[in-house]
Amino acid sequence: MQGKIIIFSAPSGAGKTTIVKHLLSTNPQLSFSISACTRDKRGRSEENGKDYYFITPEEFKKRIGADEFVEWEEVYEGAFYGTLKSEIERIWKQGKHVILDVDVKGGLSIKNFYKDRALAVFVKPPSIEELANRLTARNTDSTSSISSRVFKAKFEMSFEDQFDKVIVNDDLNKAFAEAENLVSQFLNTEPAIV
Predict the structure, then answer these.
(1) Residue 148 half-sphere exposure, CB side, CA atoms within 13 Å?
(2) What is the model's pTM?
C-alpha cells in the first residue's frame, strides 16, 4: 500500500478540527500528522510529540535550511509552525494514511508537494456572518480577535477553488458524512503515476 495524505483546511471556526477528529474516531486507516511549532506548551495538558513537536526557533530555522519541512510558516515574528517530512514518513511506515488539519496556505503547499497522493479539502462556513456567530459563541476570543479572524477568513475563502473538494459545513452531521465519503473514495482509488 502506498500511503496517501488527506488535508483539511478552513478559516478558523469553520469546523475543520471537529471533522478531522470525527474521521480519526471512525477510520482506523488514518493517523494525525503532528505539527512542529516554536511556541511554548500551553499549560500541563500539552505534550511534546502528541500535541505538537515543540522546538526552538533556532532549531526550526536549521530544519528549514535542511529542507526538512513539507510546509512551514512564520505566523508572526519568531512564531513558526510547519509539517515535517519525517512526520509524514513516520505515519506511512506504520501502514496508515496521513490526515492533516492545517491553514489554507499550508494545505495548498502540501497538495502541491505530494500531488495525486494528496486530497485537499476546503471546509467552508455557510456564510461569513455564520462564521462570526460561531467564533462569538465559542466565547474564547476578544472582539478584536474575532474581527481579525473574520477578515482573514474572507481572504482564505478566496482560495477555495484551488482545493480538490469543498465541504460547506452548514450541518455538522451532513459534513461528517460528506467527509467520510470523500476520504473513502480517495483511499480506494489508485493515484495516477507521475
Answers:
(1) 4
(2) 0.89
